[in-house]
Amino acid sequence: MKMLQSNYRLIPYLILFLLPVSLNAQEKSSTIVEFLKENKIDSEHAGKFGATVLQTSDGRIKPVNTFSSEILRKLHKSDEIWGINSDQFLLSLFIFPEMWVHVPFIHLPNKHIATYLGIGEDKNCSYSEFFDSEGDYKLQKKIEEIYHKPASERNKFEKDLLKLDEQINLFFQLLNFRMLNIFPCKNNPEHKWYAPGDSFENFDRRDSLFVSSIMSLYLSNILDGLETGNWEKADETIRKINIFQQEKDTDFRINLKKVRAELLYNKLNIFRMCKKVYLICGGILLLLLFGMRRLPFALRLLPFALISAGFAYHAFGICLRWYIAGYAPWSNSYETMVFVSLISILAGMIFYRKSQIVYALSVLFGGVTLFVSGLNWMDPQIGLLVPVLKSPWLMFHVAIIMISYGFFGISFLLGLTNLVMLMANKKKKNEMISLRIRELSIINEISLWTGLCFLTTGTFLGAIWANESWGRYWGWDPKETWALITIIAYTIVTHIAFINRKNNPKWLNAGSVIAFLCVLMTYFGVNYFLSGMHSYG
Prior knowledge:
Shape: elongated
Strand content: under 5%
Number of strands: 8
Distance between the termini: 37 Å
Helix content: 55-70%
Number of helices: 20
Order of helices and strands: HHHEEHEEHHEHEHHEEHHHHHHHHHHH
Structural class: mainly alpha
Largest sheet: 2 strands, antiparallel
Mean pLDDT: 87
């Protein structure tokens, strides 16, 4: 859909493509990037555009700001590009599509893909580099070969190619004004919303006229804003789109309170802030506690206050996400890691009076967990639950399992710390270190027993959920099998102390470290390396 054909305002940037042939591709892309930076959409207006709602492919109503953030993360693996935020990026893409296709900003998931495409060894490439001189898609033949292979036989390179193909298809749809489903249709029995690039045959005559012309008018208004610096016309057009959405939302799916809450959630970036607080404060506490039994009140007051504030902010973020999503936010890997981080900090607070070093380790573990949750391969997107996850048993089953993982994480760090101190104090000459080892070993054992109780309870609740969802309590699914293996592993570790010859701190601590590998396999390995009924997580 050519929205801006024959528009004289496009002459300045079209001239870039008529520059002397002596300009190589790198110089050309640099020139384009500088132009895009200089012609950045006004941030205040972009915020109004981001506050407009759309419907996702699964039917969820959410702000354009959430959509644009997800798009930019999928394409560029970042929330912004050259100081341009996601809303500004999306509008810029609609205004200057011919420029963005030549900008190397699409992230390559595998370094060998660049060599395969013959574009050097860059981490990013442009959309145009995926097509040869005749306009044929370079990956077409290889993608068809991969799809003819069973999923279990695909190697990492092939899986990464499929991810890249998904990114290219996503960018292609945006260039054709698809996916931006901002127009509700009152005559559609499925309550489907439409994008500017869709067919509007289901709309009545008056609405069809509006939806077919408003986007062209809006983009023209944006060009006016870039030229004059006056964004009133563009603001007014966005207001008209918002009014249209409210009038045609006959089934009342737009919840403005939730939209505002989601915009606030996106703006605050709560978990990223908490991650920094936990890592910095936890690290400082651990360094201060090294060689000291307890810190003076003045030294521990500020870190404790900051961590407590971070914990409250963290809990607020989870509650806010719960309100936006409409369900308990521990239904996928990202959400459960955020929850495990919170539980780890809470467990550290419980043990605070017994040992400050346990508290410091728990804070550090919470920060590391949030760090992992923020990596590119994690998907923080809020979506609708698949039917099997809509059982009320899910909330209790997963929550209790994640609580156990929080305690096991602390035990892992305590075990690791004790093993290091045992190696440093082999001859037991330092009485202070020996005392510290005994103290931390007792807390480690308490943490192990607590985690084991929660894990066993959570697994039994999972069986009830399985019976309700799939009609059986146990089916030896990979996730179920590894959950049982984890229970057995921690049962062995917690019972080591009852064996006289093994009643030694090193066995308990070594066991808490080794057993945590079962947790990692149950949590990550099953989801990403094995296929089963729990692979949706």
